[in-house]
Amino acid sequence: MTFDYARPQATAERLLARFGQTCTLRKTANFGTEFDPLQTTTDEDVTAVDRNRRLRDRDGTLIGQNLRTLYVSTAAGKTPNKGDEVAVGVDKASVTSDTPFIEIAEVRPLSLGGVNLMWEVDLAE
Questions:
Q1: CA 56 → CA 60, 62, 66, 105, distances in Å?
Q2: Looking at the domain assignment, is residue 1 inside a domain?
């Protein structure tokens, strides 16, 4: 009997859509030559749950550290990558030149049986 991994993926997408918020994922592509570098940016809407937590007593130290992690839905078909940027709680239609974007430090897929349920994204703050 084979387990149907589509059901947990649908559950994860449903819960992220219900409890998450729209965020803007900014992807930057570099191309051109060394002497004539060119760059394009594209903004894409994704749904994410923001988990901001404080780490204490990490590695035997008493130093407190804040760690901000986003759980990003796979429903939009957008894959966040290390080095991309995200604006939390802002959809791409509302992005202005003053919108604060945070760089993505680490991306880990949360998957079962080769099916990605969501992306776990650590932000560099």
A1: 9, 6, 9, 20
A2: no
